Amino acid sequence: MANLKKTYTEKIAPALKEQFGLKHALQVPQIIKVTINTGLNTKRDPKFMEVLLDSLTRISGQKPVQTKARKSEAGFKIREGMPVGAMVTLRGTRMWDFIEKLVAVTFPRIRDFRGIPESAVDGHGNFNYGFREHTAFPEINANEVESLHGLQVVITTTAKSHKEGLALFKALGFPFKTNTK
C-alpha cells in the first residue's frame, strides 16, 4: 500500500486547493485526529472492560483511556465516576496508518457493506462511523472473540463545510454510496 500521508501531501492537497479555489496551502482541509470510542452498554463486569481495553489496544496500537460517568443517572443505574467506556485518540503516523487500514482493509471486511452514506460527514466536515461489530478490524481474530461490541470512529478535520469534508474523504478513497435511484 502507498503511504497515505505522502499521497495526501503530494496529490490530494493540491487538487483540493485548486477545486475550492483556496489561496493558501493551510486553508486546505486536513485531518487533525482520529478518535475511537466504545461504550460498556449494560454489561458492568470488570472482565468485559478488560476485553474492551484489549480490543481497542489491538485495533489502535495505543493504550486506551477509560471514560467515566460525569454525573449520576438513576435511570441508567450509573453513578458519578463509574467506568462507562473507553477511547483512544490517534495523531501523526498512527493516525495515517489507521486511516489507510480503515479504507483498504476494514470497510471491505464489513458484512453486507454497501458503502458509507454521505451523511457520515457532518456539517463541519468531520467523519463519524459506527461499527456494530469490532471483528471487522484485521487485528481481531473472530475465532477468539468471547463477546461482540461496537465502536465509533470519528475523524476530525479542519474542513469548513460538509462539501469540503466529503471531497477530502472521497479523495482519500473512502467508499461512499453512489446515489442511484
Q: What does this molecule look like?
A:
It is a single chain. With 181 residues, the protein is an alpha+beta fold. The protein has a domain at 34-92: 50s Ribosomal Protein L5, Chain: A, CATH 3.30.1440. The protein has four helices and five strands. The chain has helices spanning 4-19, 46-60, 92-109, 162-171, and strands at residues 31-39, 65-68, 83-90, 127-131, 151-157. Strands 2-3-1-5-4 form a five-stranded antiparallel sheet. The longest helix has 18 residues, at 92-109. The radius of gyration is 18 Å and the shape is globular. The two termini are 34 Å apart.
Task: Write the topology of this structure.
Layout: H1 4-19, E1 31-39, H2 46-60, E2 65-68, E3 83-90, H3 92-109, E4 127-131, E5 151-157, H4 162-171
Antiparallel strand pairs: 1-3, 1-5, 2-3, 4-5
Rg computed from alpha carbons, rounded to a whole number of angstroms = 18 Å
Shape descriptor: globular
Distinct helical segment count: 4
CATH superfamily heading of the domain at 34-92 = Ribosomal protein L5
Question: What does the oligomeric state look like here?
Answer: single chain
Order of helices and strands: HEHEEHEEH
Find the CATH topology of the domain at 34-92: 50s Ribosomal Protein L5, Chain: A
Q: Give a short account of the largest sheet.
A: 5 strands, antiparallel
Look at the helices and sheets and give the structural class.
Answer: alpha+beta
**CATH top level assignment of the domain at 34-92:** Alpha Beta
What's the helical proportion of residues? 25-40%
CATH architecture of the domain at 34-92: 2-Layer Sandwich
Any low-confidence stretches, pLDDT <50, length ≥5? none
Number of strands: 5
Strand share of the residues?
15-25%
What is the end-to-end distance? 34 Å
- Order of strands in the sheet with most strands: 2-3-1-5-4
Average pLDDT, all residues: 86
GO molecular function, one term: rRNA binding
Organism: Candidatus Uhrbacteria bacterium GW2011_GWC1_41_20
Subunit structure: Part of the 50S ribosomal subunit; part of the 5S rRNA/L5/L18/L25 subcomplex. Contacts the 5S rRNA and the P site tRNA. Forms a bridge to the 30S subunit in the 70S ribosome.
Keywords: Ribonucleoprotein, Ribosomal protein, RNA-binding, rRNA-binding, tRNA-binding
